[in-house]
Each structure stands twice: as structure tokens, then as C-alpha cells.
Amino acid sequence: MSLQPLEPFERDPAAIVVVPDTEAAEPPEAAWGGRPAAKSGRSGRLAAMAAGFGLTGLVLGDAARRIGGLIAESPLIGLPLAVFGLLFVVGTAALALREWRGLRQLLRRAGLRAAAARLVGSDFHGEAARLLSQIAEELPDLPDRRRPLAVYRALSRPTLADGEQLELFERHILRPLDRRAYRLVLEASRDIGVLTALSPAGLFAGVLVLWRTLLLLRTIASLYGMSPGPVASLALFRRALRNAVLAGVADVATHAALEHMGAGLAALLSARAGQGAGHAVLAARLGLEAIRLTRPLPFIAEKPPSLRQVTKSLFATREADHRP
Amino acid sequence: MAASPLASTLSQVLDQAREEARTFTRRLLDAHLRLAITGLRRSGKTVFTTAIVHHLLDGRGLPFFRPVHEGRYLGARILDPPGPPFPLERTLRVLTAEPPRWPEPTRALSTLRLELRAAATGMTSWLQPIRRLILDIVDYPGEWLLDLALLGLDYDAFSALALELAHSPGRAPLAAPFFALLKEMTPQAADPLFADRLASAFVDHLRRAQAADFALLLPGRMVEQEEATDFAPFAPLPPNLASGPLGEIMRERYARYRETVVMPFYERWFARFDRQIVLVDLLSVLNRGPAHFEDTRRALALVLENFRYGRTSLLGRLFAPRIDRVLFAMSKADHVAPNQHANAKELLALLIRDGARHARLEGVPQEVMVLAALRSTEVVRIEHQGQLLSCVRGWLVDEDRETVLFPGEIPHELPEDRDWHERRFRFRRFAPKRLGGARPDSHIRLDRALDWLIGDHL
Predict the structure, then answer these.
(1) Do A5 and B389 touch (CB under 8 A)?
(2) Cβ–Cβ of A8/B406 closer than 8 Å?
(3) Which end of chain B is more exposed for a tag (fewer CB within 10 A), N or C?
């Protein structure tokens, strides 16, 4: 049985109590449509974690017992060892906690993006405000972000549908960040190309490329308000690599082929320069994927930067061409 | 010394030729658009026209209009209109007055020409750093639009349609005097006075239908008193009368009306549009009930059949322009709370489904939108019977008082007849808010509409 629609009514403006719209301040979980779906292997992972914690507990317990014995036998050796052990455990735990938070941030960001993707183009009202308020809190409070935020707030109004709110947020808040992220990708790709070309040995070049790529991914993540540690950066790297391979095989192949045509000439002159061009393109691809993975919204009205743009800018000389 | 008539005529011809050459050049450069602001009576065409001109001249308050949000928009200016001028000053004066009022309904065709400028982007920006667009807008009484339906109907088809409409449940009582007179007529009646009497009774019935807010009034311009003197009025006849001398008289008058009134209007203005917005006052239609919903649906379908849609080549743009992008918009969206807009959009899509078919078949991109060119209300949330409801607060035009209104829930599909009782909807007419600075909250989606209609040309 369907509900009867509410009949029209009028109220005297002087006699009503206006209820403020507090939706934006409410916790976002209800509006997200849930966190990212639980993976099928979640129970297995929980079991593995429990086993890991248990084993760690056993090791720590055994170490504590042994150190306790050592203190009893020889306090001069035992006490410093105990202090060192304690510092080690606390440091490791802090590091693990930070990494765990970094990994959680990655998952959480994916959840935000999934929730936003559901609202793209939506004509309904009421969900975007809470989601965007959550996203705005997570973005870094850079001084040059305050003006776009003020403009966004001035333009945002209750008559905008959820899809429109998202679009407005993307245009005013994320667009400047996207531009900076694009420049980071460009700079890192160029660095990698040059480092590879100048490095004396292949292994050394590989290490340099890996280090610079990880640095790029971390910088992009920070730009979008995340603070991944080394493990989370590696996780980001892994995901970016996977996406680059899965989603962009054709793209990479096309552009790599194009670049190889260009790089082929260079390779005749210098094999190292050709290798540098290849590394730069790969780093650009990973950087672009990192933008997609760390950006709190999917690309809606804005065009995502493409590998073609980066490669074109990489080998262009005009500064104007560096804009996405 | 006064110029001779020959010199004056020659000068006029030269001016016209010069203007045509300018237009031709602009269209060759793809820098000229003719925008059809289409809508039945009281759909908000004049206010829409005034609001877009106001915002384009100001250049602010349009965050979803691409050239503005990309920071490329340089501004606009008004040029000499291609036809009778749109009374912009008058409409702006009443909308910016204190207290503001809605402009008077349009009684004649008027035109407006704007030049818009924006910094160019893309590969040709070095060649032409500033992009110019000439935008022609035509405003006209909604009744005139209905006459376009006559273009596809000969006299017999018109008679069949007009009589069917007059017999329809909501209109039959209004047409009773006309039918009574029709019964008195014999096929042999050949006196033009009979024809005049019958036509007069028919026009009276149309005016009564107009007063009862029916939309499909054919022929539209016969409803207007002052226009009725420009042509001999006519009336539909059933087949038995149409085949006699009276039918010959009516047939001849109908043909003349089409040739002298409808065709020039169509060829001069309506056959040359590039873009179109179809404004629909959905809320008034809902207020009036299912018969009016069907009436409006049919009126829109008949009218829109006569526009030329399709993608065009450069030569097509120059010599046989077609509408290559359409926007169907519910006007007066501010008369309901924003959380009802999604349903209103779906219902509008249902209302224009038949009307949009012609354009759809030609592959023309379409968009459906819910907008308000000028807001007249604000949204308030109040508690009612234990639930929080979004209502609108505004100044009622008819009662000259402020109110907070919950006008009913707009369904996403047409309600069943049994659900469509008289207490289902109560959409009221609100006075406009003053059209001051071009703020984004002074309208709803006017910028999105502009972006869809002309954004790609700037």
C-alpha cells in the first residue's frame, strides 16, 4: 500500500519555528551508503591479524621474561637492554599505527570517492552537503585554499542538487589542487627522465626511479590531504601500478609506442636517453593514477589530466604548455 | 529638405541588405545564434529573457556558465535588434522596482540582440583571442506559438481537431453556445454573416477556454481581441457543413489566415532558430488537474512538431538553419522546495515526451531542467505533524500577504485520477524578489540553462 501524499498547507510566517538545516554537521556514515563493501577475504585477514598479534604477543612476552631474568642476574646489562627494548617496541608500535592509519586513509578515500560517484549527476538533495563537508575537513588547510573555499561557500546554496554541489566543489576546491598535482607529475617525470639519462649504471637508475616515484606519490597524497607512510606509499604505488596496467594497457601501449617513436631517434643517439624517456612516461602514468586514487572525488565536470598531455608537455619547451 | 520616397525606400533596402550581409558573415564564422525561447502562455518567457540579459550584461552570478567559471567571460552589450525591440527597460523597471512586480504579459512580438564576448581557448585562440557571439532572442505571446500547429493541418484536419477539443469533457460546457449555433446551420447556408456569427461564437468559446486556463487554443491569435480585426475570423465545421458553401467560406478564410498570419510569422522568425528552450509552467498544469495536463501535453506536441530540428553543416547553418540543441525547462521552480525538483524533472519529462520525439528522432541533444529565472521565495524547514518539511516562504501576489506554503508533493509520475483530487496541489503565485545585483541565489539554474544553450559557442 502506498503512502498518501501530504496535503498542501499554509502557515503564518510569524507563527512558525524555522528548523535550521543541520545535515551538514551530522556524521557522514549514514549518507555514504556504507563504507566500501567488505571484501570476501575479510575473515581470513582478521584471522591472519589475530595470529600475527598472538605471535607478537608471545615473542614480546618471551622477550620480557628473558629481560626480566637478565635484570635479576645482571642489572647493569639488563636495565639498558630493557630500556632499549621498550623504546624499540614503542617506536615500532607508533610506526605500525601510523602505517595502519595511512592504509585506512587510502580505504577511506576510496569510500568517499565511491559515495561521491553515486551522487554524480544526482537531482536529489540532502546527501552532498554532508559528504562535502567531510571531504573539506580532510583537505589540507593551505593558505591559498581559503579563498576558493570562501568562493565555494558563497556560491553554494540550498537550491543546488547533490550533483551540482559536487560539481561546484570540484571546480572551486579541487581544480587548483589538480593543477598542482599535474605540475608535480610533470616535474617528477622530467626528473626521472633526466636522472635515468645521467645515471652511470642501470641498477642505480632503477633505485633512483623507484625513490622519485614513491616521493611523487607521497607528495600527491599529501596535496589531497593524506599522509601516507612508507608502507601506505608502497600500497599506493601497488594500486597505481595495478590500475596503470589494468586500465591503461591500451593507453600506455599507444603512448609508449608514440614515445618510443620519438625516443627511438634519441635512442640511436643515446640508449640511456631513450630509457629515460620510457621511465618518465611510466612515472607520469603512475602519478596520474595516484591522482585518481587520492583525489576525494572522481573527476566530474573537470577533465582528468591525460598521459598525452603530460608527454606533450614533457617534450615541449613553452611554459604555457605545462598547464593541464 | 525631406528625402524622396524612392530614396527612402532605397536606403531601407540597402540597410537591410547590409544587415543581411553582416548576419551571413557572422553565421559563416559560427558566431551567430538565434535562440528560440518557446513556451505557452504564462510560461515565463519574458522574465526568462529579461533575467538572462540582466545576468549576461552583469557577468556575475552565473557559476555554472562555462565562460564565467573559467574566468573567460568578458561581458555583453545590447545591439540594435533585428525586429521590433524587446521592452527591456520596461521589464527591468518593474522587476527592480520597490516592491517589484511581474511584467505585463507579452502582447506582441519583440526581439533582442546581444553581443557576448569571452577570451578564446583552443588552437585558434592565437588567431582570434576574443570570441564574439551575437545572440538573437525573440519574445512573443504564447498564443501565437499555438498557431504553428496549423501549418501541418488543412482546414478539414483543423476542423476535426478543433471540434474534438471543443467536445472534450472540460471544454464541452464552454462550447455549448457554439454547438447550439452550429446545429442551426444548414449545408446550404452561404451568407458570410452566418460565417461571422459562427466564428464569433467559436472565438467566444476559445476565450472561455483561455479563462479556464486551457492551453491548446486554436487558432491562437483569434483569441486576442485586437488581432481579430486583421483577418476574417473562421470556425471549424463538421464534415456535413464543411462540404457546402459555408464550408467554402470558412476554408477560404482559414487558408488566408494561414498564409497572411501564420506563415509570415513562422518564416520570418520560427524557421531560422539554432537553439531552443521550451519553458513549461508545470505547477500551474498540476494545479488545474489531469485534463489540463493532457491539454498541455498535446499543445506542446503539436507546436514542437513544426520546428526544424537536426544537426547542420556549415551550408545548412547559412541557408537552412535547424535547431541543434534543445532544453526543456520547468519554470517557476522556486515555487516548490528544492527537494521536489527531482520529481518535477521526471514529471516534466513525461509531459514533453511526445513533444520531444521529433527532435529526438533527428538526434538533437536534449536536456530537461527545473529552473527559476528570478526567485520569488526562500526555502524554510518547519515541523509539521511530527516531520520536518521543506516549505517556501514568499509574498502572495493575489492576496498581498506573506505566507509559508507547503504546496503538496510533486509525484515523479502522473497521479491516478482518483489521487488527483482538488486538495492534492496548491501552487500559489508569489511576487518576485527584487532583481538587484546579479547574485547566484537570485535564480535557480539559469546559468546551467545558459551553459547548455550557448556555452559551447563561447
Answers:
(1) no
(2) yes
(3) N
Length of chain B: 458
Contacts of A6 in chain B (CB under 8 A): 384, 389, 406, 408-409
Nearest alpha carbon to residue B395 among B433, B443, B427: B433
Give the residue among B55, B41, B69, B36 at the shortest CA–CA distance from B372. B55
Q: How far is B233 from chain A (nearest CA, A)?
A: 43
pLDDT, one tens digit per residue, over A216-226 is: 999 999 999 88
CB contact under 8 A, A155 and B440: yes
* Contact: A21, B411; criterion CB under 8 Å: no
Q: Nearest CB to A159: which of B342, B402, B444?
A: B444
Quote the minimal CA–CA distance from B371 to chain A in Å: 10
Query: At B199, which helix (H) or strand (E)?
Result: helix B192-211
Contact flag A19-B383 (C-beta cutoff 8 Å): yes
Cα B392 from Cα B338, distance rounded (Å): 9
B78's grid cell: 545590447
Phi, psi for B134 (deg, rounded to 5): -95, 125
Looking at CA atoms only, how far is residue B336 from chain A in angstroms?
A: 10
Question: Nearest-CA distance from A155 to chain B in Å?
Answer: 7
3-class secondary-structure state, position B238: coil
Give, for all 458 residues of chain B, the pLDDT tens digit: 455 777 877 887 777 777 767 766 666 566 889 998 988 888 899 999 999 999 999 888 899 999 998 889 999 999 999 889 999 999 999 998 888 999 988 778 899 999 999 998 877 777 778 889 999 998 888 878 888 888 888 999 999 999 999 998 888 899 999 999 888 887 777 777 888 888 989 999 999 998 888 888 888 888 875 555 667 888 999 988 888 888 888 999 999 999 888 888 888 887 788 999 999 999 998 988 888 888 899 999 988 888 888 877 666 666 678 898 999 999 999 999 999 999 999 999 999 999 888 888 989 999 999 999 999 999 999 988 888 899 999 999 989 899 999 998 898 888 777 777 777 888 999 999 988 766 778 899 999 999 999 998 88
Q: Mind giving me the DSSP string for A75-117?
A: HHHHHHHHHHHHHHHHHHHHHHHHHHHHHHHHHHHHHHHHHHH
Task: Give the C-alpha separation, B290 to B284, whole Å.
Answer: 11
Residue reference for cell 502572495: B396
Which residues make beta-bridge pairs with B330?
B280, B370
Q: What is the dihedral of CA B227, B228, B232, B238, to 10 degrees?
A: 120
Angle, helices A307-314/A175-198, rounded to nearest 10 degrees:
50
List the single residue in B with minimal CA-CA distance to A154.
Answer: B440
In whole angstroms, how large is the CA radius of gyration of chain A? 26
Q: Provide the whole-model pTM.
A: 0.80
Q: For residue B437, which residues of chain A lie inside 8 Å, CB to CB? A: none
CB pairs under 8 A between A and B: 92
Q: How far is CA B314 from CA A288, B116, B122, B274, in A?
A: 39, 21, 20, 12
Contact at CB, B334 and A159, closer than 8 angstroms: yes
| ipTM confidence score | 0.78
Question: Pick from A9, A18, A20: which is nearest to B406 by CB?
Answer: A9
B441 Cα distance to chain centroid: 24
Instruction: Select from B60, B65, B68, B69 the residue whose CB has the most chain A CBs within 10 Å, as the one to mutate to test that interface.
Output: B69
- The whole-angstrom separation of Cα A185 and Cα A193 is 12
